[in-house]
Protein 1
Amino acid sequence: MVGAPASAAVLFGFDPGAASPEPGYHVVNAFDVATGITGSNFQIKVPPSDGNGALPANSIPAGTPYLSVLGGGFANVSLGGLFSAFQFDWGSIDTYNTLTIHGTAGDVVVVPGGNFPNQADGNQFAAGTNGVFTVVGTAGEKFTGITLASGSNSFEIDNLAVAGGVPEPAAWTMMILGFAAAGSLIRRRRAMAATV
Protein backbone atom coordinates (compact mmCIF):
# COMPACT_ATOMS: atom_id res chain seq x y z
CA MET A 1 0.00 0.00 0.00
CA VAL A 2 1.42 3.36 -1.00
CA GLY A 3 0.66 5.88 1.74
CA ALA A 4 0.79 9.59 2.25
CA PRO A 5 0.14 11.60 5.41
CA ALA A 6 -2.78 14.00 5.09
CA SER A 7 -2.48 15.62 8.51
CA ALA A 8 -1.50 14.69 12.05
CA ALA A 9 -4.78 12.81 12.58
CA VAL A 10 -5.41 11.33 9.10
CA LEU A 11 -3.38 8.88 7.02
CA PHE A 12 -4.38 7.75 3.55
CA GLY A 13 -2.99 5.33 1.03
CA PHE A 14 -3.64 3.51 -2.19
CA ASP A 15 -3.31 -0.23 -2.85
CA PRO A 16 -3.00 -0.58 -6.67
CA GLY A 17 -5.18 -3.29 -8.21
CA ALA A 18 -6.71 -4.36 -4.86
CA ALA A 19 -10.47 -4.51 -4.21
CA SER A 20 -12.65 -3.29 -1.35
CA PRO A 21 -13.59 -4.54 1.18
CA GLU A 22 -10.28 -5.68 2.55
CA PRO A 23 -10.17 -7.76 5.80
CA GLY A 24 -11.62 -5.84 8.76
CA TYR A 25 -13.90 -3.65 6.60
CA HIS A 26 -17.55 -4.05 5.61
CA VAL A 27 -19.37 -2.39 2.71
CA VAL A 28 -21.89 0.30 3.70
CA ASN A 29 -22.61 1.56 0.18
CA ALA A 30 -22.25 -0.51 -3.02
CA PHE A 31 -23.83 2.35 -5.01
CA ASP A 32 -26.68 0.23 -6.37
CA VAL A 33 -28.94 3.22 -5.58
CA ALA A 34 -28.29 6.86 -4.62
CA THR A 35 -29.05 6.33 -0.91
CA GLY A 36 -27.06 8.64 1.38
CA ILE A 37 -25.79 10.76 -1.54
CA THR A 38 -26.51 14.44 -2.25
CA GLY A 39 -24.98 16.80 -4.79
CA SER A 40 -25.28 17.62 -8.46
CA ASN A 41 -24.21 16.15 -11.79
CA PHE A 42 -23.52 12.62 -10.55
CA GLN A 43 -24.95 9.27 -11.64
CA ILE A 44 -25.36 5.75 -10.40
CA LYS A 45 -23.89 4.06 -13.47
CA VAL A 46 -24.46 0.55 -14.76
CA PRO A 47 -21.74 -0.89 -17.03
CA PRO A 48 -20.70 -0.87 -19.84
CA SER A 49 -18.37 2.13 -19.69
CA ASP A 50 -19.16 5.23 -21.71
CA GLY A 51 -18.21 8.91 -21.76
CA ASN A 52 -19.90 9.38 -18.38
CA GLY A 53 -17.83 6.85 -16.48
CA ALA A 54 -16.08 3.52 -16.24
CA LEU A 55 -16.47 0.89 -13.54
CA PRO A 56 -13.33 0.77 -11.36
CA ALA A 57 -11.32 -2.09 -12.90
CA ASN A 58 -10.69 -3.67 -9.50
CA SER A 59 -14.33 -3.64 -8.32
CA ILE A 60 -15.77 -6.99 -7.21
CA PRO A 61 -18.21 -8.18 -8.34
CA ALA A 62 -17.57 -6.78 -11.80
CA GLY A 63 -20.46 -5.42 -13.81
CA THR A 64 -22.42 -3.92 -10.90
CA PRO A 65 -23.50 -0.26 -10.47
CA TYR A 66 -21.05 2.36 -9.21
CA LEU A 67 -20.97 6.11 -8.50
CA SER A 68 -19.74 8.46 -11.23
CA VAL A 69 -19.33 12.21 -10.65
CA LEU A 70 -19.40 14.06 -13.97
CA GLY A 71 -17.50 17.21 -14.98
CA GLY A 72 -18.39 20.19 -12.82
CA GLY A 73 -20.33 17.95 -10.43
CA PHE A 74 -19.98 16.79 -6.86
CA ALA A 75 -21.41 14.11 -4.60
CA ASN A 76 -21.60 14.14 -0.80
CA VAL A 77 -21.59 10.57 0.53
CA SER A 78 -22.39 9.77 4.17
CA LEU A 79 -20.60 6.93 5.95
CA GLY A 80 -23.70 6.40 8.13
CA GLY A 81 -21.94 7.04 11.46
CA LEU A 82 -18.54 7.85 12.94
CA PHE A 83 -15.75 5.52 11.78
CA SER A 84 -12.02 5.41 12.46
CA ALA A 85 -11.23 4.04 8.98
CA PHE A 86 -12.87 3.64 5.58
CA GLN A 87 -11.97 2.62 2.06
CA PHE A 88 -13.39 2.40 -1.45
CA ASP A 89 -12.57 1.20 -4.95
CA TRP A 90 -11.27 4.24 -6.87
CA GLY A 91 -11.26 3.82 -10.63
CA SER A 92 -9.43 5.59 -13.46
CA ILE A 93 -7.93 8.23 -11.14
CA ASP A 94 -7.50 11.63 -12.79
CA THR A 95 -5.72 14.84 -11.76
CA TYR A 96 -9.08 16.67 -11.99
CA ASN A 97 -10.65 14.43 -9.29
CA THR A 98 -10.79 16.01 -5.81
CA LEU A 99 -11.72 14.09 -2.66
CA THR A 100 -12.69 15.89 0.55
CA ILE A 101 -12.66 13.74 3.69
CA HIS A 102 -15.01 14.94 6.45
CA GLY A 103 -13.90 14.12 9.98
CA THR A 104 -14.12 15.19 13.58
CA ALA A 105 -10.82 17.13 13.33
CA GLY A 106 -11.93 19.01 10.18
CA ASP A 107 -11.82 18.40 6.45
CA VAL A 108 -8.86 17.00 4.52
CA VAL A 109 -8.62 17.54 0.76
CA VAL A 110 -6.90 14.90 -1.39
CA VAL A 111 -5.72 15.89 -4.87
CA PRO A 112 -4.27 13.19 -7.19
CA GLY A 113 -0.93 14.29 -8.59
CA GLY A 114 -0.68 16.84 -5.74
CA ASN A 115 -0.74 15.69 -2.12
CA PHE A 116 -1.67 12.21 -3.42
CA PRO A 117 1.41 11.40 -5.55
CA ASN A 118 0.11 8.48 -7.56
CA GLN A 119 -0.40 7.77 -11.23
CA ALA A 120 -3.37 9.94 -12.27
CA ASP A 121 -3.79 9.66 -16.03
CA GLY A 122 -7.34 8.27 -16.12
CA ASN A 123 -6.33 4.82 -17.36
CA GLN A 124 -9.44 2.63 -17.02
CA PHE A 125 -7.53 -0.67 -16.71
CA ALA A 126 -4.08 -0.13 -15.12
CA ALA A 127 -3.56 -1.12 -11.48
CA GLY A 128 -1.86 2.23 -10.84
CA THR A 129 -5.12 4.09 -11.42
CA ASN A 130 -7.56 1.43 -10.16
CA GLY A 131 -7.31 0.18 -6.60
CA VAL A 132 -8.38 0.58 -2.99
CA PHE A 133 -8.08 4.01 -1.40
CA THR A 134 -7.95 3.71 2.41
CA VAL A 135 -8.23 6.43 5.06
CA VAL A 136 -7.27 5.77 8.69
CA GLY A 137 -7.70 8.10 11.65
CA THR A 138 -5.02 8.38 14.28
CA ALA A 139 -5.22 10.09 17.65
CA GLY A 140 -8.98 9.38 17.87
CA GLU A 141 -9.95 10.93 14.53
CA LYS A 142 -13.35 9.70 13.25
CA PHE A 143 -14.88 10.18 9.80
CA THR A 144 -18.46 11.02 8.81
CA GLY A 145 -18.40 11.18 5.02
CA ILE A 146 -16.71 12.25 1.81
CA THR A 147 -17.27 14.71 -1.02
CA LEU A 148 -16.18 13.78 -4.52
CA ALA A 149 -15.76 16.55 -7.10
CA SER A 150 -14.56 16.38 -10.67
CA GLY A 151 -13.48 19.06 -13.11
CA SER A 152 -14.21 16.78 -16.08
CA ASN A 153 -15.78 13.35 -16.70
CA SER A 154 -15.46 11.46 -14.32
CA PHE A 155 -14.68 10.52 -10.70
CA GLU A 156 -15.71 6.85 -10.23
CA ILE A 157 -15.89 4.86 -7.00
CA ASP A 158 -17.51 1.66 -5.76
CA ASN A 159 -17.84 -0.44 -2.58
CA LEU A 160 -17.50 2.16 0.18
CA ALA A 161 -16.50 0.16 3.29
CA VAL A 162 -15.90 1.13 6.93
CA ALA A 163 -14.09 -0.20 10.00
CA GLY A 164 -13.87 0.76 13.67
CA GLY A 165 -17.06 2.71 13.95
CA VAL A 166 -19.89 3.87 16.10
CA PRO A 167 -23.24 2.76 14.64
CA GLU A 168 -26.11 5.15 13.98
CA PRO A 169 -28.89 5.40 16.61
CA ALA A 170 -31.14 3.07 14.57
CA ALA A 171 -28.52 0.32 14.76
CA TRP A 172 -28.22 0.81 18.53
CA THR A 173 -32.01 0.53 18.86
CA MET A 174 -32.08 -2.76 16.95
CA MET A 175 -29.21 -4.12 19.05
CA ILE A 176 -30.95 -3.16 22.33
CA LEU A 177 -34.23 -4.69 21.16
CA GLY A 178 -32.34 -7.88 20.27
CA PHE A 179 -30.80 -8.05 23.76
CA ALA A 180 -34.21 -7.42 25.35
CA ALA A 181 -35.80 -10.21 23.28
CA ALA A 182 -33.01 -12.63 24.19
CA GLY A 183 -33.34 -11.76 27.89
CA SER A 184 -37.10 -12.23 27.75
CA LEU A 185 -36.69 -15.64 26.11
CA ILE A 186 -34.19 -16.76 28.77
CA ARG A 187 -36.51 -15.63 31.60
CA ARG A 188 -39.43 -17.46 29.98
CA ARG A 189 -37.44 -20.67 29.65
CA ARG A 190 -36.33 -20.45 33.29
CA ALA A 191 -39.93 -19.91 34.41
CA MET A 192 -41.12 -22.87 32.33
CA ALA A 193 -38.33 -25.09 33.72
CA ALA A 194 -39.23 -24.10 37.29
CA THR A 195 -42.92 -25.08 36.87
CA VAL A 196 -42.18 -28.50 35.36
Protein 2
Amino acid sequence: MKKFIVPFLVMFSLTFSLAGAGSYQQSYVNVLEPYTYTLHNNGTVFLGKVGPGQPFYVTISSETINKTGSLYERGWNEMVINNAPQGWVWVNSSLYNSNLSVKITPPATAQNGTYTFDLAAVNIGNYSQLGALHFKAVINVTPDVFVLSVHPKNISTGPGEPASVYVTINNTGVSDSPFIVNVTGLPAFNLSTGVIALHGTTQNFTYGIYEDEPGIYHANISVVSVSSPLVKESTTVNMTIEPSVLNDYKAIGQGAITFPVIFQPMYYIMYLISKLFG
Protein backbone atom coordinates (compact mmCIF):
# COMPACT_ATOMS: atom_id res chain seq x y z
CA MET A 1 0.00 0.00 0.00
CA LYS A 2 2.82 2.42 0.88
CA LYS A 3 4.53 1.68 -2.42
CA PHE A 4 1.37 2.90 -4.25
CA ILE A 5 0.80 6.04 -2.14
CA VAL A 6 4.31 7.51 -2.51
CA PRO A 7 4.43 7.54 -6.35
CA PHE A 8 0.84 8.93 -6.38
CA LEU A 9 1.81 11.81 -4.08
CA VAL A 10 4.89 12.58 -6.17
CA MET A 11 2.83 12.60 -9.37
CA PHE A 12 0.13 14.81 -7.81
CA SER A 13 2.72 17.26 -6.50
CA LEU A 14 4.46 17.47 -9.90
CA THR A 15 1.15 17.98 -11.76
CA PHE A 16 0.08 20.71 -9.34
CA SER A 17 3.47 22.47 -9.72
CA LEU A 18 3.30 22.41 -13.51
CA ALA A 19 -0.24 23.75 -13.48
CA GLY A 20 0.83 26.55 -11.20
CA ALA A 21 3.83 27.36 -13.38
CA GLY A 22 1.64 27.44 -16.48
CA SER A 23 -0.67 30.03 -14.92
CA TYR A 24 2.15 32.42 -14.00
CA GLN A 25 2.18 35.58 -16.08
CA GLN A 26 5.10 37.95 -16.59
CA SER A 27 4.61 41.69 -16.62
CA TYR A 28 5.86 43.29 -19.81
CA VAL A 29 6.77 46.62 -21.34
CA ASN A 30 5.58 47.54 -24.81
CA VAL A 31 8.14 49.86 -26.43
CA LEU A 32 6.39 52.18 -28.92
CA GLU A 33 9.21 54.46 -30.08
CA PRO A 34 11.59 54.63 -31.81
CA TYR A 35 10.53 51.08 -32.75
CA THR A 36 7.87 48.68 -31.45
CA TYR A 37 9.15 45.91 -29.21
CA THR A 38 7.91 43.87 -26.23
CA LEU A 39 10.23 43.35 -23.24
CA HIS A 40 10.15 41.38 -20.01
CA ASN A 41 12.20 42.02 -16.90
CA ASN A 42 15.97 42.29 -17.57
CA GLY A 43 15.39 42.25 -21.32
CA THR A 44 17.40 44.22 -23.89
CA VAL A 45 16.22 46.31 -26.84
CA PHE A 46 18.41 47.61 -29.70
CA LEU A 47 17.19 51.09 -30.68
CA GLY A 48 19.13 51.60 -33.91
CA LYS A 49 21.48 54.53 -34.53
CA VAL A 50 21.73 58.20 -33.62
CA GLY A 51 24.11 61.00 -34.55
CA PRO A 52 26.34 62.63 -31.93
CA GLY A 53 24.43 65.40 -30.17
CA GLN A 54 21.07 64.34 -31.60
CA PRO A 55 18.29 64.00 -29.00
CA PHE A 56 15.90 61.07 -29.27
CA TYR A 57 13.02 59.53 -27.31
CA VAL A 58 12.24 56.11 -25.92
CA THR A 59 8.48 55.72 -25.43
CA ILE A 60 6.60 52.88 -23.76
CA SER A 61 2.93 52.12 -23.13
CA SER A 62 1.69 52.24 -19.54
CA GLU A 63 -0.28 49.03 -20.12
CA THR A 64 0.85 45.71 -18.61
CA ILE A 65 -0.43 42.68 -16.66
CA ASN A 66 0.17 41.25 -13.18
CA LYS A 67 1.06 37.66 -12.26
CA THR A 68 -2.54 36.48 -12.57
CA GLY A 69 -2.93 37.99 -16.04
CA SER A 70 -5.08 40.91 -14.94
CA LEU A 71 -4.72 43.88 -17.28
CA TYR A 72 -3.65 47.27 -15.94
CA GLU A 73 -4.08 50.09 -18.44
CA ARG A 74 -1.99 52.37 -16.21
CA GLY A 75 0.25 49.74 -14.65
CA TRP A 76 3.42 51.72 -15.37
CA ASN A 77 3.26 55.27 -14.05
CA GLU A 78 6.80 56.48 -14.80
CA MET A 79 9.86 55.53 -16.83
CA VAL A 80 13.28 56.42 -15.47
CA ILE A 81 16.89 56.04 -16.52
CA ASN A 82 19.00 54.50 -13.79
CA ASN A 83 22.33 54.56 -15.56
CA ALA A 84 23.67 56.13 -18.77
CA PRO A 85 27.10 56.64 -20.36
CA GLN A 86 29.18 59.50 -18.97
CA GLY A 87 28.37 62.87 -20.52
CA TRP A 88 24.93 61.87 -21.78
CA VAL A 89 21.94 63.99 -20.77
CA TRP A 90 18.47 62.60 -20.11
CA VAL A 91 15.04 63.60 -18.81
CA ASN A 92 12.81 61.02 -17.12
CA SER A 93 9.19 60.70 -18.22
CA SER A 94 6.27 62.65 -16.84
CA LEU A 95 3.93 60.78 -14.47
CA TYR A 96 0.71 58.82 -15.01
CA ASN A 97 0.41 59.27 -18.78
CA SER A 98 -0.86 56.53 -21.09
CA ASN A 99 2.47 56.73 -22.95
CA LEU A 100 5.71 57.40 -21.08
CA SER A 101 8.74 58.96 -22.81
CA VAL A 102 12.31 59.62 -21.74
CA LYS A 103 14.46 62.07 -23.71
CA ILE A 104 18.10 61.10 -24.22
CA THR A 105 20.89 63.19 -25.76
CA PRO A 106 24.43 61.95 -26.44
CA PRO A 107 27.23 64.55 -26.33
CA ALA A 108 27.86 66.45 -29.58
CA THR A 109 31.41 65.07 -29.43
CA ALA A 110 30.40 61.46 -28.69
CA GLN A 111 32.72 58.94 -30.28
CA ASN A 112 31.39 56.36 -32.71
CA GLY A 113 30.39 53.15 -31.00
CA THR A 114 27.71 51.17 -29.19
CA TYR A 115 26.36 52.49 -25.89
CA THR A 116 24.10 50.91 -23.26
CA PHE A 117 21.88 52.51 -20.64
CA ASP A 118 19.54 51.08 -17.98
CA LEU A 119 15.85 51.97 -17.82
CA ALA A 120 12.98 51.01 -15.56
CA ALA A 121 9.20 51.12 -15.90
CA VAL A 122 7.84 51.87 -12.43
CA ASN A 123 4.54 51.24 -10.68
CA ILE A 124 4.72 54.17 -8.26
CA GLY A 125 4.25 53.10 -4.66
CA ASN A 126 3.80 49.51 -5.93
CA TYR A 127 0.07 50.28 -5.80
CA SER A 128 -0.76 47.59 -8.37
CA GLN A 129 1.79 45.11 -6.96
CA LEU A 130 3.89 45.37 -10.12
CA GLY A 131 7.04 46.88 -8.65
CA ALA A 132 9.42 47.90 -11.44
CA LEU A 133 10.48 46.28 -14.68
CA HIS A 134 14.15 46.84 -15.55
CA PHE A 135 15.56 46.65 -19.06
CA LYS A 136 18.58 47.74 -21.09
CA ALA A 137 18.60 49.80 -24.25
CA VAL A 138 21.47 49.72 -26.74
CA ILE A 139 22.14 52.35 -29.39
CA ASN A 140 24.83 52.93 -31.98
CA VAL A 141 26.32 56.44 -32.24
CA THR A 142 27.45 57.34 -35.76
CA PRO A 143 27.27 60.41 -38.01
CA ASP A 144 25.94 58.16 -40.79
CA VAL A 145 22.25 58.60 -39.95
CA PHE A 146 20.77 59.89 -43.20
CA VAL A 147 21.12 59.54 -46.96
CA LEU A 148 21.10 62.67 -49.14
CA SER A 149 20.14 62.95 -52.79
CA VAL A 150 19.85 66.14 -54.86
CA HIS A 151 18.58 66.72 -58.38
CA PRO A 152 19.03 68.01 -60.97
CA LYS A 153 22.82 67.90 -60.94
CA ASN A 154 23.14 70.26 -63.93
CA ILE A 155 21.32 73.60 -64.02
CA SER A 156 21.24 76.30 -66.66
CA THR A 157 19.70 79.64 -65.78
CA GLY A 158 20.15 83.37 -66.24
CA PRO A 159 21.84 85.91 -63.96
CA GLY A 160 19.78 86.55 -60.84
CA GLU A 161 17.18 83.97 -61.87
CA PRO A 162 16.46 81.38 -59.17
CA ALA A 163 16.61 77.68 -59.91
CA SER A 164 14.90 74.97 -57.89
CA VAL A 165 16.98 72.17 -56.43
CA TYR A 166 15.12 69.17 -55.05
CA VAL A 167 16.64 67.79 -51.86
CA THR A 168 15.69 64.33 -50.54
CA ILE A 169 16.62 63.28 -46.99
CA ASN A 170 16.21 59.65 -45.96
CA ASN A 171 16.51 59.73 -42.16
CA THR A 172 17.72 56.26 -41.11
CA GLY A 173 18.44 57.32 -37.50
CA VAL A 174 16.11 57.59 -34.49
CA SER A 175 16.27 61.36 -33.98
CA ASP A 176 13.82 63.98 -35.26
CA SER A 177 16.42 66.72 -34.90
CA PRO A 178 16.12 69.41 -37.65
CA PHE A 179 18.56 69.86 -40.51
CA ILE A 180 19.93 72.99 -42.20
CA VAL A 181 20.16 73.07 -46.02
CA ASN A 182 22.65 75.56 -47.46
CA VAL A 183 24.85 76.17 -50.48
CA THR A 184 28.48 77.24 -50.88
CA GLY A 185 30.57 77.88 -53.97
CA LEU A 186 28.45 80.73 -55.35
CA PRO A 187 29.51 84.39 -55.04
CA ALA A 188 25.89 85.47 -54.51
CA PHE A 189 24.43 85.27 -51.02
CA ASN A 190 21.93 82.41 -50.78
CA LEU A 191 19.82 81.90 -47.69
CA SER A 192 19.94 78.70 -45.66
CA THR A 193 16.72 76.93 -44.73
CA GLY A 194 15.71 74.61 -41.90
CA VAL A 195 13.88 71.33 -42.56
CA ILE A 196 12.72 68.34 -40.53
CA ALA A 197 12.87 64.74 -41.75
CA LEU A 198 11.32 62.56 -39.04
CA HIS A 199 13.14 59.37 -38.08
CA GLY A 200 12.44 56.41 -40.33
CA THR A 201 11.03 58.60 -43.12
CA THR A 202 12.10 60.01 -46.48
CA GLN A 203 11.22 63.68 -47.03
CA ASN A 204 11.51 65.86 -50.13
CA PHE A 205 12.24 69.59 -50.03
CA THR A 206 12.59 72.33 -52.64
CA TYR A 207 15.55 74.68 -52.24
CA GLY A 208 16.03 77.74 -54.45
CA ILE A 209 19.52 78.94 -55.45
CA TYR A 210 20.75 81.70 -57.76
CA GLU A 211 23.82 83.57 -58.99
CA ASP A 212 24.11 87.12 -60.40
CA GLU A 213 27.22 86.82 -62.55
CA PRO A 214 27.48 84.78 -65.78
CA GLY A 215 29.82 81.82 -65.60
CA ILE A 216 30.10 78.13 -64.72
CA TYR A 217 29.89 77.29 -61.03
CA HIS A 218 30.12 74.18 -58.89
CA ALA A 219 27.63 74.75 -56.10
CA ASN A 220 27.99 72.56 -53.02
CA ILE A 221 24.60 71.67 -51.49
CA SER A 222 25.02 70.51 -47.88
CA VAL A 223 22.63 69.21 -45.24
CA VAL A 224 23.81 69.51 -41.64
CA SER A 225 22.10 68.43 -38.41
CA VAL A 226 21.27 71.32 -36.08
CA SER A 227 22.53 69.17 -33.20
CA SER A 228 26.07 68.52 -34.43
CA PRO A 229 28.25 69.60 -37.39
CA LEU A 230 29.56 66.02 -37.50
CA VAL A 231 26.22 64.86 -38.91
CA LYS A 232 26.57 66.17 -42.46
CA GLU A 233 26.18 65.13 -46.10
CA SER A 234 26.83 67.17 -49.25
CA THR A 235 26.82 66.93 -53.02
CA THR A 236 27.77 69.15 -55.97
CA VAL A 237 25.44 70.78 -58.48
CA ASN A 238 26.85 72.30 -61.69
CA MET A 239 25.38 75.72 -62.57
CA THR A 240 25.73 77.49 -65.91
CA ILE A 241 24.73 81.14 -65.65
CA GLU A 242 24.16 82.86 -68.98
CA PRO A 243 21.67 85.44 -70.30
CA SER A 244 19.11 84.09 -72.79
CA VAL A 245 15.49 84.59 -73.72
CA LEU A 246 14.77 80.96 -72.73
CA ASN A 247 16.24 81.50 -69.27
CA ASP A 248 14.12 84.63 -68.90
CA TYR A 249 11.06 82.57 -69.75
CA LYS A 250 12.05 79.98 -67.13
CA ALA A 251 12.42 82.71 -64.54
CA ILE A 252 8.75 83.59 -64.99
CA GLY A 253 7.81 80.18 -63.58
CA GLN A 254 10.17 80.69 -60.65
CA GLY A 255 8.46 83.95 -59.70
CA ALA A 256 11.60 85.99 -60.23
CA ILE A 257 9.98 88.67 -62.39
CA THR A 258 6.88 90.76 -61.54
CA PHE A 259 4.54 91.92 -64.28
CA PRO A 260 1.24 93.83 -64.48
CA VAL A 261 -1.81 91.59 -64.15
CA ILE A 262 -3.00 92.30 -67.70
CA PHE A 263 0.14 90.66 -69.11
CA GLN A 264 -0.14 87.44 -67.10
CA PRO A 265 -1.72 85.28 -69.87
CA MET A 266 1.12 86.22 -72.23
CA TYR A 267 3.80 85.36 -69.71
CA TYR A 268 2.11 82.09 -68.89
CA ILE A 269 2.52 81.11 -72.55
CA MET A 270 6.16 82.19 -72.41
CA TYR A 271 6.72 79.92 -69.40
CA LEU A 272 5.13 77.00 -71.27
CA ILE A 273 7.56 77.62 -74.14
CA SER A 274 10.46 77.34 -71.69
CA LYS A 275 9.11 73.97 -70.46
CA LEU A 276 8.83 72.68 -74.02
CA PHE A 277 12.26 73.76 -75.22
CA GLY A 278 14.27 74.08 -71.98
Protein 3
Amino acid sequence: MLDRDTYNAFCASLPHSTHVVQWGNSDVWKIGGKIYSVSGVNKREPAYSVSFKCSEIAFEMLRDTPGCRPAPYLASRGMKWIQRVSDESVSDDDLKDYVKSSYRIVSLGLTKKLQKELDLNQETKE
Protein backbone atom coordinates (compact mmCIF):
# COMPACT_ATOMS: atom_id res chain seq x y z
CA MET A 1 0.00 0.00 0.00
CA LEU A 2 1.27 3.43 -0.95
CA ASP A 3 2.87 5.19 2.02
CA ARG A 4 2.80 8.87 2.86
CA ASP A 5 6.33 9.65 1.65
CA THR A 6 5.81 7.93 -1.71
CA TYR A 7 2.45 9.65 -2.21
CA ASN A 8 3.86 13.07 -1.36
CA ALA A 9 6.90 12.57 -3.60
CA PHE A 10 4.61 11.60 -6.48
CA CYS A 11 2.37 14.65 -6.05
CA ALA A 12 5.41 16.90 -5.69
CA SER A 13 6.63 15.65 -9.08
CA LEU A 14 3.57 17.10 -10.84
CA PRO A 15 4.41 20.58 -12.20
CA HIS A 16 3.36 23.57 -10.08
CA SER A 17 1.87 21.40 -7.33
CA THR A 18 1.71 22.98 -3.91
CA HIS A 19 1.38 21.18 -0.60
CA VAL A 20 -0.17 22.15 2.71
CA VAL A 21 -0.92 20.15 5.82
CA GLN A 22 -4.36 20.92 7.17
CA TRP A 23 -7.52 19.37 8.56
CA GLY A 24 -5.78 17.45 11.32
CA ASN A 25 -2.56 16.39 9.57
CA SER A 26 -3.93 15.69 6.09
CA ASP A 27 -1.64 16.18 3.10
CA VAL A 28 -3.48 18.50 0.71
CA TRP A 29 -2.13 18.91 -2.84
CA LYS A 30 -3.21 21.77 -5.08
CA ILE A 31 -2.66 23.14 -8.55
CA GLY A 32 -3.33 26.84 -9.03
CA GLY A 33 -4.78 27.01 -5.52
CA LYS A 34 -7.37 24.28 -6.22
CA ILE A 35 -7.27 20.90 -4.48
CA TYR A 36 -6.64 17.82 -6.62
CA SER A 37 -5.81 15.26 -3.91
CA VAL A 38 -6.04 14.85 -0.14
CA SER A 39 -4.57 12.08 1.94
CA GLY A 40 -4.02 11.08 5.52
CA VAL A 41 -4.80 8.64 8.26
CA ASN A 42 -8.36 8.73 9.54
CA LYS A 43 -8.83 7.81 13.20
CA ARG A 44 -11.52 5.33 12.17
CA GLU A 45 -9.48 3.82 9.32
CA PRO A 46 -6.18 2.02 9.95
CA ALA A 47 -4.92 2.56 6.40
CA TYR A 48 -3.45 5.62 4.73
CA SER A 49 -6.23 6.89 2.46
CA VAL A 50 -6.04 9.02 -0.67
CA SER A 51 -8.92 11.06 -2.11
CA PHE A 52 -9.00 12.41 -5.64
CA LYS A 53 -11.35 14.08 -8.09
CA CYS A 54 -12.44 11.93 -11.01
CA SER A 55 -14.62 11.82 -14.08
CA GLU A 56 -18.26 10.88 -13.76
CA ILE A 57 -17.56 7.49 -15.38
CA ALA A 58 -14.65 6.75 -13.02
CA PHE A 59 -16.77 7.82 -10.04
CA GLU A 60 -19.58 5.43 -11.00
CA MET A 61 -17.08 2.62 -11.56
CA LEU A 62 -15.09 3.16 -8.34
CA ARG A 63 -17.81 4.09 -5.86
CA ASP A 64 -18.68 0.45 -5.15
CA THR A 65 -15.24 -1.05 -5.81
CA PRO A 66 -13.75 -2.86 -2.78
CA GLY A 67 -11.24 -0.58 -1.08
CA CYS A 68 -12.83 2.59 -2.50
CA ARG A 69 -15.77 4.77 -1.55
CA PRO A 70 -17.18 8.18 -2.32
CA ALA A 71 -14.89 10.61 -0.49
CA PRO A 72 -16.42 11.79 2.78
CA TYR A 73 -17.61 15.42 2.76
CA LEU A 74 -16.65 16.02 -0.88
CA ALA A 75 -18.86 13.39 -2.54
CA SER A 76 -21.71 14.14 -0.16
CA ARG A 77 -21.78 17.64 -1.63
CA GLY A 78 -22.29 16.30 -5.15
CA MET A 79 -18.64 16.40 -6.18
CA LYS A 80 -17.10 13.44 -7.99
CA TRP A 81 -14.40 12.50 -5.48
CA ILE A 82 -13.31 8.98 -4.55
CA GLN A 83 -11.34 7.88 -1.51
CA ARG A 84 -9.13 4.80 -1.76
CA VAL A 85 -8.82 3.23 1.69
CA SER A 86 -7.05 0.01 0.67
CA ASP A 87 -5.28 -1.44 -2.34
CA GLU A 88 -7.77 -4.31 -2.53
CA SER A 89 -8.90 -3.40 -6.06
CA VAL A 90 -6.97 -0.27 -7.08
CA SER A 91 -3.19 -0.79 -7.24
CA ASP A 92 -0.72 1.90 -6.29
CA ASP A 93 0.12 2.42 -9.97
CA ASP A 94 -3.57 2.82 -10.81
CA LEU A 95 -3.95 5.22 -7.89
CA LYS A 96 -1.11 7.35 -9.25
CA ASP A 97 -2.90 7.41 -12.63
CA TYR A 98 -6.11 8.55 -10.93
CA VAL A 99 -4.27 11.27 -8.99
CA LYS A 100 -2.58 12.44 -12.21
CA SER A 101 -6.00 12.49 -13.91
CA SER A 102 -7.40 14.50 -10.98
CA TYR A 103 -4.54 16.97 -11.38
CA ARG A 104 -5.46 17.38 -15.06
CA ILE A 105 -9.21 17.70 -14.38
CA VAL A 106 -8.59 20.39 -11.78
CA SER A 107 -6.02 22.20 -13.95
CA LEU A 108 -8.57 22.38 -16.78
CA GLY A 109 -10.91 24.21 -14.40
CA LEU A 110 -8.41 26.99 -13.76
CA THR A 111 -8.81 30.26 -15.62
CA LYS A 112 -7.27 30.32 -19.09
CA LYS A 113 -4.99 33.10 -17.89
CA LEU A 114 -3.68 31.01 -14.98
CA GLN A 115 -3.32 27.94 -17.19
CA LYS A 116 -1.18 30.02 -19.56
CA GLU A 117 0.89 31.48 -16.69
CA LEU A 118 1.58 27.95 -15.40
CA ASP A 119 2.09 26.61 -18.93
CA LEU A 120 -0.63 24.02 -18.42
CA ASN A 121 -2.87 22.49 -21.07
CA GLN A 122 -1.32 24.59 -23.80
CA GLU A 123 -1.72 23.05 -27.21
CA THR A 124 1.38 23.22 -29.33
CA LYS A 125 0.83 24.62 -32.80
CA GLU A 126 3.02 23.38 -35.59
